[in-house]
Amino acid sequence: MLPSTQALSALKATQKPFIASSVVEKKPFVAHSTIEVNSPRYFYTCAAGGVLACGLTHYLMTPVDMLKCRMQVNKSLYSGVFDGFKKVASAEGIRGLYLGGAPTLLGYSLQGMGKYGFYEYFKYLYGGFIGDEAAAKYKTMLYLSSSASAEFIADIMLCPMEALKVKMQTSATPFATSFLGGIRKINAAEGLNGFYKGLTPLWLRQIPYTMVKFATFEKTVEAIYKNVLSKPKDQYSKTQQLGVTFAAGYFAGIFCAIVSHPADTLVSKLNNVAKAEGESTGAIAVRILKDLGFKGVWAGLTPRIFMIGTLTALQWFIYDSFKVQTGLPTTGAAAAPKKE
């Protein structure tokens, strides 16, 4: 027997649209984890997320990074990013585009571990020093001081691999045929100083970069939930929260690239310039800056904006995705929406 018209109408009224219930995730995401926030296990988890976020993304962007470094050392080498891709791929293939990939992966994995793990630790530590009321009132200063402290440590972990990466990517003739061969060559020629002579310029590049990266990201996340979206953060789904993470990350990355670019140019040149007898690292840096001039320190900015914007967005997305998989909340304190 066929159902009656009234029965069909009643059945239709009880059904939910397939798209809303099965395809689009609308269930609010509320963090629930066995990991206690601000416990040692929490900091280790954030450090592990940082390894994935920084190591994988920097390795992915190795071709752009290599072209950027070469253009900083010799601005007439390529007419632009696409010209560089074409010339390198034609002469050296995919392997040539990923020159320096091994030290990039290792170095930025270590840096990410220090950057994200210590950021969360210092945010908790400094917040405890000044108290909850002051921490809430001076949030931006808390973000800036915590990220600067974390990056100071992270760069010590990164510097040896950054030195090897730049030498491999910018030397006129192949610097080394292997990762270990490059390590041995630097050590034989300059000893420990060869790995750390770029540390101060690296701090000058990375500490402002990271301060902007974390503070701008946190403030942007807060602004999106407060001024663009209509509900508190915990009323949005996991997918929606991660979408906010990616958008805020890209916005922060653009500012990061601009703020840190002159120091990035100096790092690239410093690891590629011969040191005169008795010349200090500071003297070499002054000599390089004089040779480059104001215009020269901004060489390669366009590919770096693309690279850092993409990197920063992907890093925050991977980091927060990892946290979500462990049941932890996404990064960024959501302010209550504005009252009309």
TrEMBL record:
Cross-referenced Pfam families: Mito_carr (PF00153)
Q: In its keyword annotation, does this UniProt entry include Repeat?
A: yes
Provide the membrane topology annotation: Multi-pass membrane protein
**Spans of repeat Solcar:** 41-125, 138-223, 240-325
Compartment(s) of residence: Mitochondrion inner membrane
Kindly list the biological process annotations in GO that this record carries: copper ion transmembrane transport; mitochondrial phosphate ion transmembrane transport
User: What SUPFAM superfamilies does the entry give?
Assistant: Mitochondrial carrier
> What UniProt keywords are attached to this protein's entry?
Membrane, Mitochondrion, Mitochondrion inner membrane, Repeat, Transmembrane, Transmembrane helix, Transport
**Record's GO cellular component, any one?**
mitochondrial inner membrane
Q: Which PROSITE patterns match?
A: SOLCAR
Q: Where are the transmembrane segments?
A: none
Molecular function via GO: phosphate transmembrane transporter activity
Q: Which InterPro entries match?
A: MCP_dom_sf, MCP_transmembrane, SLC25A3/Pic2/Mir1-like
Q: What does this protein do?
A: Transport of phosphate groups from the cytosol to the mitochondrial matrix.
Q: Which family does it belong to?
A: Belongs to the mitochondrial carrier (TC 2.A.29) family.
Q: Protein name, please?
A: Cu/Pi carrier
Organism the protein comes from: Coemansia thaxteri
Gene name linked to the record: PIC2
